[in-house]
Amino acid sequence: MTRTWLRWMPAAVVPAVIAAGVLAGSVPASAKDPLPSKTPAEVIALMAGQHQAAFSGTLDQASSLGLPQLPTTGPGSSPETAWLELLTGPHTARVYRNGTENLRVQVLDRLAERDVIRSGNDLWLYSSKDNSAAHAVIPADAGHQGMGKGAGSGTDAGAVPTPDALAAKLLAALEPTSDVAVAPDVDVAGRSAYQLVLTPKSPDTLMASAAIMVDGQTGLPLGVELKARGQADPAFRVAFSAISLTAPDAGIFQFTPPAGAGVKELPARDPSGKDHSGQAAKKPSGTGKDPQAGKRKVSGSGWDSVLELPAGTLTPPASGAAGATPGNAAALLQQAAVPVAGGRLLSTALLNVLILDDGRVFLGSVPLARLQAAAGGQ
User: Fold this and answer.
1) Comparing C-alpha atoms, which of 234, 81, 103, 78 is closest to residue 161?
2) Checking DSSP bridges between strand 262-266 and strand 297-299, what pairing results, if any?
3) What phi and psi values does residue 233 have, to the nearest 5 degrees?
4) At 272, phi and psi to the nearest 5?
5) Can you list the alpha helix ranges (DSSP code H) found in 194-328?
6) Each residue of 106-134: pLDDT tens digit?
7) Angle between helical axes of 163-174 and 40-48 (0-180°, round to 10)
8) Beta carbons within 8 Å of 122's beta carbon, 6+ residues apart
9) What backbone torsions phi and psi does residue 245 show, to the nearest 5 degrees?
10) CA separation for the pair 334, 311 (Å, rounded)
11) Distance, CA of 176 to CA of 272 (rounded, Å)
């Protein structure tokens, strides 16, 4: 992880991460000998210079957003909506990594398991719930896109990301607009860690603070925590409850679909939007247009960022259209939203999402009035 890589991440990534419901970790104070004193800059340098290529561990994630329970499981659920579960309850995942091209994340659901596996250039997604698998070949010239150091986020909407991936995104987006301090040491999974705390300089944000727990020996982020204004307990938490800094068995990264599993081949895409054949990505069938067409815009910066998504992003399919099922993500989010002037609002402790009547979507860790002002200025 380098400072250049951190700065490359766009400011809008934090609202996107929050929308996926994937942050933080509250941990008890350490009873061990205190770590050597470091300034915020020294802790950031320690984290940026970490080279812990191999480890395995158990991640615990919890959310307390004030959202109603969304019906994402059962007959109406779908792979598209699996990520919504991260918004409304606790989750456990096992993470295995050895270098930049061997990664496995196992999200442990009730009586089921979801896996994201990278072995070399092969990427597999598997769900034991319906015994379904998807496979993609990562282009050799894609570098470390997607699942390199700090991988775990962005590999699958239903996967719990690793703290180092989240820490990189938080620092890149929020450090310039935050007061940064080092709080007392903490203990994470039996390891002494520095606690780097970012507090917003702006009063116009729903967030009170973000904390990153950094291993005092290796610099590996072990946990991340977000707190909302007016709440004592963290709104999002993800942290290791157990970790081993030795290389996992090589067999962990080998995957063969179980007997009877349905397997779907997915085109691998590079950052230009082309698939591995060099062709531009095709528009989804049955919709008449690409729902992601149009530019995504960002106004403001840091904690005050507002991300605008093009019309159609969260518009539920019409009855009888492809994707018009009880498990459609757009339909579930619309169901949880409440009417406001000009549209509907999905409100949580850390993120507000304004879905306008014209189909545009504005989201950010800001009050409704800020979203409406951004919408009115278009």
Assistant:
1) 103
2) unpaired
3) -90, 150
4) -80, -10
5) none
6) 988 777 888 999 999 999 999 898 899 99
7) 130
8) 135, 136, 137, 138, 255
9) -95, 30
10) 14
11) 28
The pLDDT of residue 285: 40
| Residue 334 pLDDT | 67
What SS3 class is residue 65? coil
CA dihedral 353, 23, 160, 298 (to 10 degrees): 40
pTM, to two decimals: 0.73
Q: Which of 158, 160, 55, 154 is nearest to 102 (CA)?
A: 55
Separation of alpha carbons 139 and 137, rounded Å: 6
Q: Which two tokens stand for residue 211?
A: 């904390």
Q: Letter for the amino acid at 281?
A: A
20, containing H or E segment = none
- Tell me the CA distances in angstroms from 312 to 127, 197, 273, 298, one per residue in order: 28, 37, 19, 17
Which 3 state secondary structure label does DSSP give 369?
Answer: helix
In angstroms, the CA 189 to CA 205 distance is: 31
Helices (H) and strands (E) in the chain, counts: 6, 18
Q: Residue 230: how many CA atoms within 13 Å on its side-chain side?
A: 8
How far apart CA 165 and CA 169 sit, in angstroms, is: 7
Q: How far apart are CA 232 and CA 371, in angstroms?
A: 25
pLDDT digits (tens, 9 = 90+) for 221-240: 999 999 999 888 899 889 99
Tokens of 172: 């890149």
- Find, among 160, 145, 133, 177, the residue nearest to 20 by Cα: 160
| CB distance 378 to 311 below 8 Å | no
**Sheet with strand 132-137: strands edge to edge:** 178-188, 191-200, 207-215, 221-228, 236-244, 54-63, 91-98, 102-109, 112-119, 122-127, 132-137, 262-266
Tokens representing 167 are 């820490």
364: nearest Cα among 23, 18, 21: 18
**Complete edge-to-edge strand list for the sheet that includes strand 343-347:** 297-299, 306-309, 361-364, 352-356, 343-347, 338-340
Here the tokens at position 344 are 């509907």
What is the enclosing helix (H) or strand (E) of 162? none
